[in-house]
Amino acid sequence: MRIAFEFQRGGGGEQRSLNPLENPTISSGSSAEDLLAFFGLLGNDPQLPHVTIDTALEVPSNWCAVNFLSRMMSSLPVHVLKRDGDGKLKQTTGDLPALLNKAPNPEWTSQGWREYMWTQVFTGGRGCTWIERQGSKVVALWPMDPDRTTVRRRRGQKFYRFENREYPAADVIDVTFLLKRNQLDVYSPVYKNKRSIALMLAMNDYASSFFASGGTPPLALEGPLPQGAEAFKRAQADIQRAIDLAKRSGSSFFGMPPGHKLNPIGIDPQKGQTIEGRAFQIGESARIWGLPPVFLHDLTKGTFNNVEHQDLQLVKHVVTHWSVKFEQELDLKLFGQRNRSREVKHNVDGVQRGAFKDRVEGIAKAIQTAQLTPNEGRALDNRPPLPNGDTLYIQGATVPLGTQPVLKTPPDDGEPDAEPGKQAES
């Protein structure tokens, strides 16, 4: 006869299946089915943890991904540019740039508003902001709770209903993670990947119970046991009391009745694979939100060179994508469909700065090759312009082929040439 129970701090036991795992080890490269089986979740009706946005953020790698993206995108400077008579875009000042960079309304800072909006985008899949206008002038921007916002299409026009009021699409800044086919609803990165996130939560629950029991796996007692249900319960309670007493006293052993022994069920602590499970979580989070692993603080395969290249990947494939999405939504809703003279741009130079030495050398080379003026180079580091700094320069030795100046050879006066560094005798 066998009694299965699990040691837990503070007493009490949990009934477990007596079937041991056939393969007690797993790798982070295994299939989802193998991982589910490893954590005891594969069956006719696997009871995965319920996934919500709040529970998904309990996984450290998910928390890190959402916070990193929302903080980064909300910290980028936003410039309002206007096209002058020569067709060149120049940065402007005024009320609208102040709304976007300082305070969109009396209650929010620009960084707080944008961080809130991006957090909703990277969790629920949509971030909305109502544009308050006086006539055609934008006077404030107010964030909307996406869970309380309904998007509808009526007679071909899109409307947003929020707090018993309805707003036309032209008055709502709507940034989405990914639109569904009906062009109204959105895919949430959390709910669309809920099975993978549920597996992450199951790993957390598994590790918590494993280490809460002192790293002791479920155990089974073997030996002659009393007959009858009541006697059986009394024997189990006596053994549990002995275990709890040993824990409280700090003893590393406790006595067992003669002819009895405890056998582990499932896996032992050495095969817990907790580190592998954490590596799997980081990889899944990186894929869901499209982040290089280094930005989830995973440097297991990082080197100095490839970490720097992951910086470039972040700017090229993550920052650029979300910046363009936000910029074009602002252009459309703030200036209208047919506007050609004004636009909004993020300044991503701060993300690309890199090492000080490399940055200074790069700016110097751009100035020497007439790609930047000195003042334009200074502006990249937010330094004030200097007089006469708006002139393009180029190195004098760089000339078109065939136009090199011909150096004249001095006449031969019969005297030996002077040695380098010495003047010829007169």
Automatic annotation (TrEMBL):
Q: Which InterPro entries match?
A: Phage/GTA_portal, Portal_HK97
Location of the region described as Disordered in the Swiss-Prot/TrEMBL record: 375-426
A Pfam family of the record is Phage_portal
Record protein name field = Portal protein
